[in-house]
Amino acid sequence: MKEINIPCVVHVYDDRDQLTADVKDLMESAVSARDSAYAPYSDFKVGAALLLDNGEVITGSNQENASYPSGLCAERTVVYYAGAKYPDAKFLKMCITAASSKSATFDPIPPCGACRQAIVEYEIKQESPIEIYFMGASGKVMKSHSLANLLPLVFDKSVL
Ligand code: THU
Q1: What residue ranges in the chain does DSSP mark as E strands?
Q2: Would you say 115 and 73 are in contact if contact means Cβ atoms under 8 Å apart?
Q3: Going by CA atoms, what residue is nearest to atom 8 of ligand 1?
Q4: N or C terminus of the chain: which is more exposed, having fewer CB within 10 Å?
């Protein structure tokens, strides 16, 4: 038996003003998109903004449903729309923000496991990393240089 240590490296910014101008703009787009969330069941609103290599910014939010599993997270709303509308574009950077109306969320909220799996598919397809930035309602922002960094031991097409 041997132990393998798989590192996950993130950078932490004290607030979004410390981000580069382009990423700060992208985060502001995610904050705006958060308002469009349809989250009557969880009261947890998530906004995401994705910058493509063709200059387009795709934004989206979580969309819930009375049949709970039929709802969709903000991140998957965005990547599936981007993949459908711009199948040849590369995904460069994604900003995510989440705010609960029940309790303050000022710590960075990372994307859920299902969204990590969905996003990494595009990273593998395009053979280049997607930068991920995530925040709570405001406050600290965490940056991962790639999705793979957030999803060690990935399940991908190589095993099919
Ligand atoms: N949610 C997202 O939009 N993204 C995530 O990564 C985690 C959770 C949404 C799903 C649901 O509408 C609400 O947040 C509470 O789970």
Answers
A1: 11-13, 44-52, 57-61, 91-100, 131-135, 141-144
A2: yes
A3: 73
A4: N
- Taking CA atoms only, the protein residue closest to ligand 1 atom 1 is 73
* Active-site residue list: 75
The rounded Å distance from CA 1 to ligand 1 centre is: 38
Quickly tell me which residue has 């493509």 as its tokens: 52
Q: In the β-sheet with 141-144, what is the strand arrangement from edge to edge?
A: 11-13, 141-144, 131-135, 91-100, 44-52, 57-61
State which fold the 11-151 domain adopts.
Cytidine Deaminase; domain 2 (3.40.140)
Give the contacts of 34 (CB within 8 A, at least 6 positions apart).
45, 46, 47, 61, 74, 97, 98, 99
- Tell me the C-alpha distance between 22 and 26, whole Å: 6
Q: pLDDT by residue (tens digit) across 32-82?
A: 999 999 999 999 999 999 999 999 999 999 999 999 999 999 999 999 999
Q: Beta strands of 38-104 (E only): which ranges?
A: 44-52, 57-61, 91-100
Two structure tokens written together for 9: 């490296």
Q: Is 39 in the pocket of ligand 1 (CB under 6 A)?
A: yes
The Cα 99–Cα 80 span in angstroms is 22
